[in-house]
Amino acid sequence: MSSQTIPTRSEIAEADTWDLTKLYQTEGDYQQGFEKLKKEYPQYASFKGKVGQSAQDLLDVLEFDKSVDLLAERLGHYVSLKASEDSSDRDNLARKAEFSNLGTKIREAASFITPEIQAISDERFATLAADPLLKDWRNSLERLRRYRPHTLTEGEEKILAAGASAIRGHRETFSQLTNVDMIFGVVPDDKGQEVALSQSSYISLLHNRDRQVRRRAFDQFYREFSDHRYTLASSLSASVRADVFYARVRNYPSALESALFGDHVPVAVYDNLIATVRNNLSALHDYYDLRKELLGLEDIRQYDTFVPLFPEVAKTVGFDEAIELVTASLGPLGDEYVATLRGGLKSRWVDRYETKGKRSGAFSSSSYKNPPFILMNYRADVLSDVFTLAHEAGHSMHTWFAQENQLFQDYGYPIFLAEVASTFNEELLTHHVLQHAEDDRLRAFLIDRQIEDIRSVLFRQTMFAEFEKQIHAIEEAGGPLTLDVFQERYRELLEAYFGPRFTLDDALSLECLRIPHFYSAFYVYKYATGISAAVALAQRVLQQGAAAVEDYLGFLKSGGSRYPIETLQSAGVDMLTPSPIQETIELFKRRLQELRTLVKKG
Fold it and tell me: Can you name the residues that pair with 350 across neighbouring β-strands?
């Protein structure tokens, strides 16, 4: 679609946009809320120095802080959604900047609360937490106190805060280098049209069915990374050193344990993920063999792993039809789930279509006791967009159930759980559409799509997680983190994960220098555990029925009231064991065999 054919918001039906009047009826109402927040937040000062004097004093400051957070969350939700509608609109930009500035002032005004709670002696804290006045806050307070051994003195915390931008400066260096300074040139596509090569167009070019286009894009892309490899290696090394520095300063045994601490995730979960995937790499190697065969290649290389094996089926699904398809697939979850979701999707939870200036992609966003709005750029001729709707609906219903069943301070769920509900919905939709697929072409497309999801999320992200663990261990042992070390370690992982029958280009060893997630270490494993938990939960619901559904809904309702491992255990999935990961790999194997059968049949 050209920019000339993209409509403005005024040119699309109101029914196809989200209804933000459910947040604020008018811009004037928003401004009233904003002014109220400006007027009220200075009252934080009246609580300073009194936080631990009594249970009532502690309750008062917590409830005031909650009232500020509730209002700020609602205002911020409105601001972010308006900015997403049109990022070029000056009113949206001004509103966002104004709110951001106020948020900084509020954080500064409230900054004394946590240190004062942490300063309370253990004996005194136990007495306060046991007081019936604080029963609704006990969970939040105990979570906060977990950080006490890792919280420094006020002066030391100020020094760390002041030095953060300098210590983490490598992130900005990496971003500026890869997004601004690096020039990748142009690559001719399969029609002879020159395409500007960039971080985003690179992946698009790797989906091209012409292998020469893919190869040229790969070679040219990594040639630019090779020219900057020493700078990139220096930046990655600085990132790892910063992770280790913060972990040591805050008295964590390792950088990995520091990263896992917030979610109360044992290192065993991380290690179990890597070990289980490692033990099943032969299944991934078999997939690459089939991919090589179906693409008719003499050898298979990394730039051959993105192109779809089966073109997306030409199938038009209007948005209203997509709602019915998605909700039908979620029927096993019961009437309340389905009726709530269908009602929300039909009552303007969703901003449906692309408009000029609108944010790309899709997301779900909410504030407490308000609709979980969904941004889409839906296209009726793209079947994958139906799956995107199911995915975002999973986030929205997770939030909806959490809001309905938890207090404000306990409803927000962590990233570790965030992708479970969304991927779960995609699993049920895949199962439903496969059951009703009218021909083998659609079946092959859907199976290939699911296989690719598992490959890219479980296998690939686990390889990334293993690399992160290795390079942090080298730094913690006092070893060197040079370009050669990075490339050697990464090459070993590439050889293990891609297998003995895969042709590895030397340039691929540079991939470890271009992954942005490596600058937010120990995050990618959550993608792999998330898809594993989602698949295990979906299989459980489909196979066991009512009891499993009740467990799953309990997972949604729990929000952030428990730590993620405990939450998933209550739903019937234990991430401390290999079972969920193994179950996902077994699904991968079954789908691979089904694909082989379909190919032979065709």
Answer: 374
Task: Report the C-alpha gap between 79 and 60 in whole angstroms.
Answer: 29
Among 555, 583, 558, 471, which Cα is nearest to 241's?
A: 471
d(CA 438, CA 462): 35
Q: Is residue 210 part of a domain?
A: no
- State the residue for tokens 């995107």: 388
Strands (E), 185-331: 186-188, 194-196
Q: Which residue, 430, 392, 396, 427, is CA-closest to 413? A: 396
The CA distances from residue 200 to 33, 192, 257, 267, 516, in Å, are: 39, 20, 33, 34, 13
Give the model confidence (pLDDT) of 129-149 as tens digits.
Answer: 999 999 999 999 999 999 999
Query: In this structure, are residues 221 and 239 in contact, taking their beta carbons and an 8 Å threshold?
Result: no
pLDDT attached to residue 405:
98
Residue type, 308: P
**What does the alpha-carbon distance between residue 190 and residue 204 come to, in Å, rounded to a whole number?**
12
- The CATH number for 133's domain is 1.20.140.70
What tokens appear for 176 in the block?
């500026």
Neighbours of 448 (CB within 10 A): 19
* Torsion, CA 75, CA 77, CA 78, CA 82, rounded to 10: 140
Q: Cite the active site residues.
A: 392
**What is the domain range of residue 67?**
3-151
Q: How far is CA 460 from CA 31, 113, 156, 227, 466, in A?
A: 46, 41, 39, 25, 10
Q: Where in 334-381 does DSSP place strands (E)?
A: 350-351, 363-365, 373-375
Residue 541 CB contacts under 8 Å (≥ 6 apart), including other chains: 332, 333, 428, 548, 549, 552
Name the burial class of residue 2, with classes exposed (0-12), middle (13-18) and buried (19+) by CB atoms within 10 angstroms of its CB. Answer: exposed
Tokens of 358: 């609108």
Secondary structure of 387-406 as H, E, C letters? HHHHHHHHHHHHHHHHHHHC
- For 332-339, the CB contacts below 8 A with 24+ separation are 332/428, 332/541, 332/542, 332/545, 332/549, 333/428, 333/541, 333/549, 333/552, 333/553, 334/549, 334/553, 337/397, 337/553
Q: What tokens were used for 209?
A: 């069915």
Question: For every residue of 422-440, which 3-state class applies, written as one string?
Answer: HHHHHHHHHHHHHHCCCCH
Q: Work out the percent of the chain whose per-residue pLDDT is above 90.
A: 89
Amino acid at 277: V
Q: 331 lies in a domain?
A: no
Q: Do the domain assignments include residue 142?
A: yes
User: Angle CA(482)–CA(487)–CA(491) in degrees, nearest 5?
Assistant: 155
pLDDT tens-place string over residues 483-523: 999 999 999 999 999 999 999 999 999 999 999 999 999 99
* β-strand partners of 204: none
Facing residues of 186 across strands?
196
CB burial readout 373-391, b (16+ within 10 A) else e: bbbbbbbeeebebbbbbbb
Give the separation between CA 71 and CA 79, rounded to whole angstroms: 12
Domain total in the chain: 1
Instruction: Say how far apart CA 290 and CA 137 lie, in whole Å.
Output: 55
Query: Per the domain annotation, does 419 fall within a domain?
Result: no
- Per residue in 162-213, pLDDT (tens digit) is 888 888 888 888 888 998 899 999 999 989 899 999 988 899 899 999 999 9
